[in-house]
Amino acid sequence: MANALISVPARARRGEIIEIKTLVSHPMETGYRRTQLGARIPRDIVRLFVCSYNGVEIFRAELHPAIAANPFIVFPTIATESGTLTFQWTGDNGFSVTESAAIAVE
Amino acid sequence: MQPASRREFLWAAGGAAGLGLLGLVVRPAEATPAAMQEAIRKVVGTAKVSPGRVKLELPPLVENGNTVPLAVSVESAMTEADHVRAIHVFTEKNPQPDVVGFRFGPRAGRASVSTRVRLADTQAVVAIAELSDSSFWSATVNVVVTLAACLEEA
What we know:
heterodimer; A: 106 residues; 0% helix; B: 154 residues; alpha+beta; 6-stranded mixed beta sheet; 3-stranded antiparallel beta sheet; 2 helices; 9 strands
């Protein structure tokens, strides 16, 4: 069902600012559209995205219907230590996707 | 009922555009500049929002409002003592004024973030940054949208 794409450099120098790109496949139905019969299509969006670095939250985004389908978010962080970055998206109708990526810092 | 064919959709879109030119288009529920001010107040409280320090990048002319690249950055040292706590983005005429809120800390290294948004109309987009000293800074960009998001039928 839901697929997430993540781009994190596999290795980085300590203290370097790395750029993380994330994309999760989701229609981001706004709740403002109607079908041809005039029925309102209920809202179905990703509401929250959280990124943690070795268990410590480093970035968070609160999303609203004005985010385009397949939310794409690019943000920076400092490579502090080797470990795992975890990414979590949560949203309407119990939507929840968790992904992780490893980084080696030298 | 069958989903709209490409032809029907294009006719409808053309018709809507024509009506728009005549100023007769019936708009869906939309936020107003007043609603945007209210949404901003909810975030900043009574603090003063000064223009500057924030750089908001959006294409000045958008052909398709369904996916518009948006980048925000803030001039900041991003140290423990002086960093950007959050960036919020608002629009004037989308059905809802809130677009997105980003929270970060000194570990970001630099305050810059980008995403893709939807824009329902030609309008102003505002980005507000909250700094660690509780000051608020803003940037406003006016965007012309030719094909609006949120209007098409499913």
